[in-house]
Amino acid sequence: MTSSRDDDGDPTASLGDDAAAAGRSADTQPVHGSADSPHGRRSTDSPPVRRLDDWNADRLRSLADEYGTPLYVLDVDRVQANYRRLAGAFPDAEIAYAAKANALVDLLRIVCANGATIECASAGEVYRAREAGIPGDRIRYTAVNPPERDLEYVVDAWKDDPTLTVTAGARDTVERLAALEYDGRLCLRVNPGVGAGHHENVRTGGDATFGIPAERLVETAHDAVERGFDLVGLHAHVGSGVLDADQREAHRRFVARVADLATEVVESVGSLEFVSVGGGFGVPYREDEPPLALDPVAETTHDAFADLDVCLSIEPGRYLVADAGVLLTEVNTVKETSATRVVGIDAGMTTLLRPALYDAYHALRSLDPDASDREPVPQTVAGPVCESSDVLCVDRPTPRFERGDVIAVGNAGAYGAEMANTYNSRPRPPTVVIDGSDSRLVRRRESLSDLTRLEAAAREGVAE
Ligand SMILES: Cc1ncc(COP(=O)(O)O)c(C=O)c1O
Ligand SMILES: N[C@@H](CCCC[NH3+])C(=O)O
Q: Where would I find the Orn/DAP/Arg decarboxylase 2 N-terminal domain in this sequence (predicted)?
């Protein structure tokens, strides 16, 4: 395995001033490439888990007062601490941040300033990365059944900057890229036959639709080389939210299988620059769940690739941003029913989709100064959307929430704002970034007029 970067220079050099500034503090120096453990890893000092109780309630309440609710809050220092911890465990690996977890332009700049590449799942994410000023050699686009419009946009971006890399998960995608006269850097995504994740809907290996079937990989690689592509990489992704022992064991088998497949490709086509083993590093959502021990995962991965002369790449999304974010929401209704105490809040499944989609658990805490004195009672917390699945929790024993309380919802930094939508014509919430003692609005609240802006029938509609 070789190191991902041959320069240890300033990764922000080609970014704008803002990005360079984001990377300038002592806290944000890239950590790649240094070693002080048998596997070249080095420890970092930030706690591996940040619970909801660790957030400063007064500060969050004052942000809710200033910007209103629902409101996403993202703490830049925590993103950077998470980045350093992961980079410390995988010092030789390239870290490609999976923008799908949270694609705010500000955030892309910050992780890139720390040394990351940006892993993009769509033309939209490539567009965001370019808006952030990120150069092509830090952008990777992984096509999933790509609409023609996406391919065309990415091929145009590659014409502007041929250092960009495209990952194809199907032979058809390779053919369609060739038809668009793309013959640049190509990575192939394989389905290694093993998946893992916090819910069956987020397992992307094994019985899933993603990637080239393993038995077709070598012939597809040959085909790509014969067509004149610059075949630089192999990619696979196990799924999302690897945390418990069974999932870690599946991840171990996954990594071993990807290493075998990479060996087959290298033997057949000569060499590869990198192998990406995807993301999936889980974080604890429940108060009593332990954090993921990164070192054994890194060691297993390192060992699996020890005999291969390739750079290792990882694609974390959730691990970098989940516990760096909270959602703030206000209680507007409380009613006792014969079955439970129902607490109505102003954030719903349109604001945070994960509970409705995956039955996901998110910790809840009232920020009211008296909240800790209140007795825990079973409470069902429901949003403002006309769907009975619009509940954050059912009968969860929590200190009584009262009307007017601001509730903080934990681990909302990943797949929170990013999956927000406007169902029931609910404008999407804003995001405020906190950066040390400063805070800034990085995405404004959508207004009612934003809802109709694209419709021809609206007064100022611009539909084509
Ligand atoms: C291809 C790919 N890479 C990376 C990720 C990031 O996953 P996670 O947020 O679990 O690290 C995903 C999402 O599951 C993905 O589909
Ligand atoms: N959206 C999922 C993660 C899966 C990402 C896509 N591969 C979640 O919130 O847990």
A: 77-322
Percent of the chain with pLDDT over 90: 84
Residue nearest to atom 14 of ligand 1 (CA): 240
Tell how far the Cα of 429 is from the centroid of ligand 2, in angstroms.
Answer: 20
Residues classed as catalytic = 386
Separation in Å, CA 6 to CA 9, 243, 311, 382, 424:
9, 32, 11, 52, 51
Domain boundaries, the chain: 17-47+76-320, 323-452
Decide if the complex's ipTM is over 0.90: yes
pLDDT above 90 for 196? no
Q: Cβ(189)–Cβ(205) under 8 Å? A: no
Dihedral, 6, 313, 123, 451 alpha carbons, nearest 10: -120
The CATH T-level fold of domain 323-452 is Lyase, Ornithine Decarboxylase; Chain A, domain 1 (2.40.37)
Question: Taking a C-beta distance cutoff of 8 angstroms, is the pair 282, 241 a contact?
Answer: yes
Report the separation in Å between the CA atom of 240 and the middle of ligand 2, taken as the mean of its atom positions: 6
Task: Report which protein residue has its CA nearest ligand 2's atom 4.
Answer: 202
What's the mean pLDDT in 22-27? 32
Mutate to test the pocket of ligand 1, among 82, 90, 97, 100 (most ligand atoms within 8 A of CB): 100
Q: What is the mean pLDDT of the chain?
A: 90
Q: Which of 333, 340, 309, 314 is nearest to 251 (CA)?
A: 314
Q: How far apart are the first and last CA of the chain?
A: 52
Please check whether residue 95 is in contact with residue 79, taking contact to mean a CB–CB distance below 8 angstroms.
no
